[in-house]
Write a structure and sequence with these properties.
alpha/beta
């Protein structure tokens, strides 16, 4: 039987990760979700996932819990989880800014991994930065990596300070990419290209450049920048 993965908070990122898991072969019925918003519960149900009545029920039924609620809802969710969470269960803190220490205050016997998925995970092609508590073993690390690896690459870092740094770099990279694309498109239009043609040209060239980088064509001995000069 597949590991049961429960998402507390069924927002856009949780839905994207769940969708990638299903696309990678995970049985939809092995996924659970809880969320106070009916529309978010309906979107998870449309994937074939199960919907729990509340966070406490989900914590009792899931083998691994992904905590992905908005920051204002974190303490309420943790208090709910604490009512039914079995000792030694894996909890992945994927809510922005949620530290392992904050989780441990409510769930002192949980095995805690922090995850910071980058925005491109929303389209199944991102990177997630993970770090684990000292008590987390290799098997639990692998379980966490499989969840977020379904929507891109996984990078493990040694501690939460490094995770925050890596997450900030990831956010800056996305912002740089989009702002650079906007600037190039604007320059192309100013130079006389029709707006639609300029937008298509820049988007496709950026996608192609990203594909070259992913293929290692910018590595030593095969410099893509030199090839296009």
């Amino acid at each position: 039987m597949d590991e049961r993965i429960g998402f507390i908070g069924a927002g856009a990122m949780a839905e994207a990760v769940a969708g990638c898991l299903v696309a990678s072969g995970r049985a939809p019925a092995a996924l659970l979700a809880s969320d106070p918003r009916p529309d978010r519960r309906e979107r998870f149900a449309a994937l074939g996932a199960l919907v729990a009545a509340d966070d406490a029920e989900l914590a009792a039924r899931a083998d691994t819990i992904v905590l992905a609620v908005p920051p204002p809802a974190v303490e309420r969710a943790l208090a709910e989880i604490a009512r039914s969470l079995a000792p030694g269960k894996l909890v992945v803190a994927a809510a922005p800014g949620l530290t392992a220490g904050a989780v441990r205050r409510f769930l002192p016997e949980a095995l805690i991994v922090r995850a910071a998925p980058a925005a491109p995970c929303l389209v199944g092609n991102g990177v997630s930065v993970l770090c684990a508590d000292a008590a987390v073993g290799a098997a639990e690390r692998e379980r966490a990596a499989r969840i977020f690896g379904a929507c891109g690459a996984v990078v493990w870092v040694p501690d939460e300070r490094t995770l925050e740094l890596a997450a900030a770099i990831g956010a800056a990279a996305s912002a740089f990419f989009f702002r650079g694309g906007e600037a190039l498109t604007h320059a192309a239009v100013e130079a006389g290209l029709p707006a639609e043609s300029a937008a298509t040209l820049v988007r496709r060239m950026l996608l192609g450049a990203a594909a070259l980088a992913a293929a290692g064509r910018d590595a030593e001995g095969s410099n893509a920048a030199e090839e296009v000069d």
